[in-house]
Amino acid sequence: MEKIMLKNIGAWDRWIRLFAGAFILSLAFWGPRTPWGWMGVVLMVTAAFGHCPIYTMLGIRSCAKDQVKRI
């Protein structure tokens, strides 16, 4: 099976990424208003797809083995 687009983020990791991404993105509008706040979009996209390219490179998976699916 191809490793490039397999789900490698578990449920808890997805929720954490979603809320952390929303918080970081909010800093672009209401916090110090720096462009770094847009990095929250990356976390939210990885949470939406359930796949993290950095996890793939490092061989990390936060989801159970039976939950790994092709995206």
Instruction: Figure out the total of helices.
Output: 3
Low-pLDDT sequence parts: none
Report the radius of gyration as a whole number of Å: 14 Å
H/E element sequence: HHH
Average pLDDT value? 88
- List the quaternary state of the chains: single chain
Class derived from helix and strand content? mainly alpha
Helix content: 40-55%
Number of strands: 0
Overall shape: elongated
Characterize the biggest β-sheet. none
How many domains? The number is: 1
The end-to-end span amounts to: 12 Å
Structure overview:
The protein is mainly alpha-helical and 71 residues long. It has one domain. It is built from 3 helices and no strands. The protein has helices spanning 11-27, 40-49, 53-58. Helix 1 (11-27) packs antiparallel against helix 2. The longest helix is centred in the first third of the chain and has 17 residues, at 11-27. The termini are close together. 15% of the residues are buried. The model has no long low-confidence stretch (mean pLDDT 88).
